[in-house]
Amino acid sequence: LWEQSGHWGHYQENMFILNVDEETYSLKPMNCPESTYVYRHKVRSYRDLPLRYSEIGRLHRNEISGALGGMFRVRQITMDDAHIYCRPDQILSEINTLIGLVRRVYGLFKFEVSFKLSTKPDNAMGDPKLWEGAESALRQALEQNGIKYGVKEKDGAFYGPKIDIQIKDAIGRDWQVATIQLDFVMLPERFDLTYIDADGQAKRPVAIHRAIFGSFERFIGILTEHYAGAFPAWLSPVQVAVLPITDAFNDYAKSVVDALKENNVRAELDDRNEKVGFKIREWETKKAPYMLIVGQKEKDSGSVSVRRHREGDKGTQKLPEFIENIKKELVEKT
After folding, report:
1. Cα angle: 221, vertex 227, 230; to 5 degrees
2. Looking at the predicted structure, is the pLDDT value of residue 100 above 90?
3. pLDDT band at 99, cuts 50/70/90?
4. Number of separate domains in the chain
5. Which of 8, 35, 91, 105 could anchor a disulfide with 2, C-beta 3.0 to 4.6 Å?
6. Exposed e or buried b for every residue in 172-183, given b needs 16+ CB within 10 A?
């Protein structure tokens, strides 16, 4: 499989290779070739295209130890890959859709996005004319979307040019994340993929490789750095911590947590036998977006005393009011 795809010749040094019982094995370094088996399991018509195959794949890459760092560069990664098989006349529409998807996803996180066109590398496979056509298609898509882009000469994949998407974090650092790669060679040519066109002739599809987050591990690392651990409520693992003033109010605190969970709010009850001031300081250190303090007054009135991370006391609210407010915040991702 990897010899046929070209990875064995172009990527072998980055693969984990094992020799077992006189057989050579490798841990999967890429999600690319497997979709060809799905494509080839029956004859495809031009009416079937585009075909879009998505995979959340676990990959292993033999990165040198000096390149490893936190969650940003690891040897086991999880990729959100998709491989799209389309006709040449569908390329522009598919790439435009992917550019829109990238903008929408990164807009949720309020990231500033920039685009780079990575061109033919020295070790490229395939006909130079195919490369020219692929680079031209990517340029056209970027320009149709009114995108100002830079060019990274000779930085494309060995099988095709690509659009690399970078984001800038809160302190101005650039990170490489999403990618959209156009492939006329590796998957279509090497795996002899065809479809029957309207004229009854077998034609070669075009493959588009795309990853929106890049690797989940790296993206989570970037998010953590970007927000300095103080995630907005919609992203935070624990959105609300509920703190009873004393053990006498644990039951009411638990009912508050239950009500929050019933409304899909990630809440945690802190019923430790500690002073409430200690709990507040600890949850502030943990950067929980909200703390709800409950005592006799809150129990009697069916309310909660609200604290917001970094902002402190926000006053008392009826529990249903707080739930509606946080649900709105989570939906709007503010």
Report:
1. 110
2. yes
3. very high
4. 2
5. 8
6. eeebebbbbbbb
Domain termination residue (choose one: 198, 227, 256)? 227
pTM, 2 dp: 0.84
pLDDT band at 185 (very low <50, low <70, confident <90, very high): confident
Strand order in the sheet with 206-215: 51-60, 76-86, 206-215, 174-183, 162-168, 112-118, 149-152
Locate 159 and state its tokens.
Answer: 């099988």
Task: Choose the final residue of a domain: 205, 227, 249.
Answer: 227
Residue 27: C-alpha distances to residues 15, 16, 31, 209, 310 (Å) = 7, 6, 11, 20, 46
260 and 178 share one domain: no
Model confidence band, residue 126 (pLDDT cutoffs 50, 70, 90) = confident
Closest by Cα among 40, 133, 23 to 83: 40
Parent domain of 312 = 240-332
Query: Residue type at 288?
Result: A
Q: Are 292 and 241 in contact (CB under 8 A)?
A: yes
Residues 239-258 pLDDT 10s: 999 999 999 999 999 999 99
